[in-house]
Design goal:
The structure is a single chain. The chain is an alpha/beta fold. Among the domains are: 160 residues, FAD/NAD(P)-binding domain (3-Layer(bba) Sandwich), CATH 3.50.50; 129 residues, no CATH class. 33% of the residues lie in helices and 21% in strands. The strands form four sheets. Strands 1, 2, 9, 10, 11, 12 and 18 form a seven-stranded mixed beta sheet that branches. The protein has a seven-stranded mixed beta sheet with strand order 7-6-14-15-16-13-17, with helices on both faces. Helix 1 runs parallel beside helix 10, helix 1 runs parallel beside helix 15 and helix 4 packs antiparallel against helix 9. The longest helix is centred in the first third of the chain and has 19 residues. The radius of gyration is 23 Å and the shape is globular. It starts with a strand and ends with a helix. Bound molecules: flavin-adenine dinucleotide (FAD). Flavin-adenine dinucleotide binds next to helix 1, strand 13 and helix 15. The site of flavin-adenine dinucleotide (FAD) has 38 residues, from helix 1, strand 13 and helix 15.
């Protein structure tokens, strides 16, 4: 006799969204989280009067994306999202708005004019080829770069690649740039609504014969985005910090969901080839379905799996991130903007003055800024921290006089990085009654948006298997 209909292993945002949605389909659910608090990489906490998040976050696809869909259908409480603002590039000369499209690239004088021209050509070619189905887009960004670019331009493209995939331009695919830069949208996009206004033009009616209506609309809007694209489209930061999103999920949770913290799942139990429950230090708990939302890479330690599946899981690629939170004694002019910034010369960071979005995250009159770096997990972490901190001092001279709180976080930001040869699992592993959710089971988009995609795929798989 099962104790629960569904056990969810892991109480990060993927596990909690899985528990919320599955329970709303009438299931009795238990969430088991190994840490003493739920939230995983989606949380906030206090350090010396400043409220820091678990990494710098901008949440994407908020208008029609997967999280929006889950919020509309399953949440009873909603977080308030504040507009992310603009992306910027910082150099020794100060801040410049990050170009979103070719029009803006023309005046982006951080890079030499010749390089901008060559990059625009390369981007136009790749986007046109992808749009016409003549390029799969799985080739390295580096292979699409023209020769003879300056060192700064290579560093810039590398920094963009790191921010979109967590990997260098040699390991990041061209598709990642096109999707991550919003040139191609991976969920229902605003382009569809814009195109609806042109529905009766002779051009559209002529080619609907050969292309489906959806394809037609997305193809046109993809190409037109070369001139009109906005990389910060529908992106936001939750008022009250990242934990507001976590709280909205927890407040929306029905009473049929029980959450146990400090409960590590040590084994996923299978009998006669089917999953029947899990084992923790407190004993065995039975359920008709187990949803695993920890690292899929770790799955072979928990359950017997076919050799070829285990081999595929070993190809999951990951990166390590370092976030340095600085609490400043006063607001400084260098961070007097809404949005975020990258630095790319001789090292890269992505930074966001989050207290500009919500002043309540810092004590009155003070400022809180998060700087995220990708670090090398083979190097000494302390020397990586030192190198990162020195980069901040170089990028923002004089900031050290205002620092009154410094806090470091070292985390794996995505359970799988979208690299050219990296593997992604799907929601259905080759064991009946076991499902997967999380950022290593869907390669669309990034972070919390990707987690939300994975939960939509989980629901689809469970419905197909008559589990919901
Ligand atoms: C520096 C940084 C910057 C980021 N920037 C962004 C951003 O800008 N936008 C964005 O959308 N996302 C961003 N993210 C990513 C986003 O935070 C994560 O993708 C998301 O929170 C992952 O959720 P998850 O539930 O899939 O995984 P996790 O948060 O890793 O949750 C998994 C949970 O499972 C638990 N667990 C694992 N194994 C077991 C076990 N055996 N038994 C019990 N419990 C177990 C873990 O303790 C953990 O709580 C960023 C992350 C970082 C670190």
């Amino acid at each position: 006799m099962a104790d629960y209909d569904v056990i969810v292993v892991g109480g990060g945002i993927s596990g909690l969204l899985s528990a919320l949605t599955v329970s709303r389909h009438g299931k009795k659910v238990l969430v088991l989280e190994k840490d003493s608090v739920v939230g995983g990489n989606c949380n906030s906490y206090n350090v010396d009067g400043f409220q820091v998040d678990t990494g710098v976050h901008a949440i994407t696809h908020l208008r029609e994306g997967p999280l929006r869909r889950l919020m509309d259908e399953y949440f009873t409480y909603l977080p308030v999202f504040l507009n992310h603002g603009d992306y910027h590039v910082r150099t020794e000369k100060g801040l410049t708005k990050m170009p979103s499209n070719i029009k803006e690239f023309v005046t982006f004088d951080i890079l030499p004019r010749k390089d901008r021209f060559l990059l625009s050509q390369a981007l136009t070619k790749a986007l046109t080829q992808v749009t016409f189905g003549m390029l799969e887009g799985n080739q390295p960004v580096y292979d699409h770069l023209p020769g003879g670019l300056s060192m700064d331009t290579y560093d810039f493209v590398d920094a963009i690649s790191y921010s979109l995939s967590g990997k260098s331009m040699k390991e990041t695919s061209i598709n990642r740039i096109l999707y991550g830069g919003s040139f191609v949208r991976d969920s229902i996009s605003e382009g569809i609504f814009e195109d609806d206004q042109q529905e009766n033009t002779s051009y559209t009616s002529k080619i609907t014969d050969t292309l489906s209506r959806y394809q037609l609309k997305s193809h046109i809007s993809t190409i037109s985005r070369l001139a009109t694209n906005k990389i910060a489209y529908a992106q936001g930061y939750p008022r009250g910090g990242l934990k507001s999103l976590l709280s909205a999920v927890l407040y929306s949770m029905p009473k049929t969901v029980q959450i146990k913290t400090s409960s590590r799942v040590k084994k996923i139990i299978s009998e006669e080839g089917k999953v029947t429950g899990v084992a923790t230090d407190s004993g065995v708990i039975r359920a008709g379905t187990v949803v695993y939302s920890g690292f899929v890479k770790d799955l072979p330690d928990l359950i017997e799996l076919p050799a070829d599946y285990k081999e595929a899981l070993s190809r999951i690629d990951q990166t390590l991130s370092l976030t340095i939170w600085l609490g400043l004694s006063e607001k400084i002019k260098e961070f007097d903007y809404m949005g975020s910034e990258i630095w790319f010369k001789g090292g890269a960071y992505w930074a966001m003055p989050v207290s500009n979005h919500d002043p309540g995250l810092a004590p009155a009159g003070k400022q809180l800024i998060g700087f995220t770096f990708i670090i090398d997990n083979k190097k000494n972490i302390e020397s990586e921290k030192k190198r990162a901190f020195e980069l901040i001092l170089r990028a923002v001279p004089g900031i050290e006089k205002r620092i009154e709180m410094t806090h470091y976080q070292v985390t794996i930001p995505e359970k799988a990085a979208v690299t050219i040869n990296g593997f992604f699992a799907t929601s259905r592993p080759p064991v009946p009654n076991l499902y997967l959710a999380g950022t290593d089971t869907d390669n669309r988009s990034m972070g919390i948006t990707r987690a939300a995609y994975s939960v939509l795929e989980l629901l689809k798989a469970m419905k197909e298997d008559k589990k919901l």
